[in-house]
Design a protein that fits this description.
With about 120 residues, the protein is α/β, with parallel strands linked by helices. It has one domain: Response regulator (Rossmann fold), CATH 3.40.50.2300. α2 runs parallel beside α3.
Amino acid sequence: MKRILLVEDEPDLRLLLEHVLLGASYRVDTAASVETACAKLGSAAYDLVVADVRLEDGSGFTVAEQAAAAGAKVLIITGYAFDLRREQISRYELLMKPVRPSELLAAVERVLPPADSRPA
């Protein structure tokens, strides 16, 4: 089962996205801050990190960089894509808020292919 770290500071949205991912049979841990997310990345291995850009204690890009350095795939979600520099958003898959459940799952599947879809 693929393991995902979901980093979102809005409690209602975090809960919704968590349930969408759980419903698709992913193992999900959540964090509401950069500090908590980085601590979780330091203590567990994740296949994918889904991170909001604007968090109360910093940037989701901080989490994304640590996740990528640890070998995890990264999916960024934000309502502020037009405020970001091109070099920031070009490094990762990006979803604009509001995120529909079907869009989230489609993006997760693009970034994190199923285990049985190995290249030939």
